């Protein structure tokens, strides 16, 4: 008995000893594995680079992934906001040459969930970069906003304009074709029409652009239209008139680089004058053949404009091309604009009248009946004074653009 007991005792003791040591070891391994798994999942969730790549690189049923080029810029950021609100998945590509990272950060703050929005810093003039972006992401559609976009600047730096607008659009088209991206919504402009003899401008008004900006956009349109003759890509070309306004909820605004002021758009100049950043407003050209001698333009609110994009995206059909003017159909003179700006800002802006600006044209306003009819779109939010008031609210609280509040 004794030997048996003696024999068993150490054995049991040994077994007990071994069990006691093994149990915590297995347990601790399980716990460690669990902790590591939780940690990895946490890191993946925290890192948009890793989690984002996975979600953005696959087509997901029921989710439309839109590449918004130039999404850090004025119109692109407003379009991205609208797309995100409408539950699209958005990738913004921008080289920040003119856009604002702060606008992208605001969008990221509003839509922080994984798989909603990613930002890629990239220059669309670099074919390798563009191909990498297209091979690493699964886009369903492209809204191509990115461009240099100042008429006056284009007369001084034409090559830059042809490169940035025409050549970069060709690069985008090649990448879309190679990666079988199905839909393109292209940002074109009324500047492609030049100075037509007959107003209003319809989509069949001959396109005879008179400055490098308009010519570069017309060439880009030609590339797109020629390609689409033999392709099943769904294409919508939107020719915008003059864009004003900003997000009515005050999250985004128009904040061009200060050095672009001299080429800038009239709304920016009005606000700068109202804030005292510039001494007054310079109206270039008072001898145009118009009612009050100043140029006539068709101003469209950015909220209406991005709505046209979403409608165009919804109605885009494979193998078909839709070309639409996006304007109100009503021309307003620069003098009228200045009066509306004075009322919107409450500031008696000084106005200096100068000679014409090279490359400008007298009168431009749209006939929007095609887009009204086919895309069921009308300019609902555009009201010159109200649009300027909304934009002014943002400008007043963002004296240095997105830099300060
Ligand atoms: N604002 C208007 O009144 C108006 C009128 C007609 C057409 N458009 C067109 O709308 C589009 C957007 O204009 P916007 O007023 O928002 O201009 P914007 O300058 O505010 O935005 C353009 C964006 O494109 C980016 N970009 C430029 N070149 C790039 C490149 N090579 N690679 C990557 N990103 C690049 C800029 O950094 C900027 O963020 C343009 O195509 C413009 O021609 C504008």
Automatic annotation (TrEMBL):
Superkingdom per UniProt: Eukaryota
Annotated NCBIfam families: galE (TIGR01179)
Family: Belongs to the NAD(P)-dependent epimerase/dehydratase family.
Gene Ontology biological process terms from the UniProt entry: galactose metabolic process
UniProt xrefs under Pfam families: GDP_Man_Dehyd
Cofactor(s), names only, from the UniProt record: NAD(+)
Protein name (record): NAD(P)-binding domain-containing protein
Domain spans labelled NAD(P)-binding: 67-382
Transmembrane spans: 26-44, 64-84
SUPFAM superfamilies from the UniProt entry: NAD(P)-binding Rossmann-fold domains (SSF51735)
Organism expressing this protein natively: Rhynchospora breviuscula
Molecular-function GO terms, alphabetical: UDP-glucose 4-epimerase activity
InterPro entries recorded: NAD(P)-bd_dom, NAD(P)-bd_dom_sf, UDP_G4E
Alphabetically ordered keywords of this record: Carbohydrate metabolism, Isomerase, Membrane, NAD, Transmembrane, Transmembrane helix
Record carries keyword Zinc-finger: no
